[in-house]
Amino acid sequence: MAYKASPEKSIAYLNRLLADKEKRHSAKTWKAAYEESRQIASAHKHAELAALALKAGRKFEEANFAEQTAIFLEKLPAPINTSKAERYVRLAAAKACGIVGKMSARANQMYMRDGYTISYIRQVNQSRGNAMFYKMCELGAGKYTAEYIVAKHFSSLISAKVYKECVAMLAEQKIFIEDKKDKK
Question: How many domains does the chain have?
Answer without folding.
Answer: 2
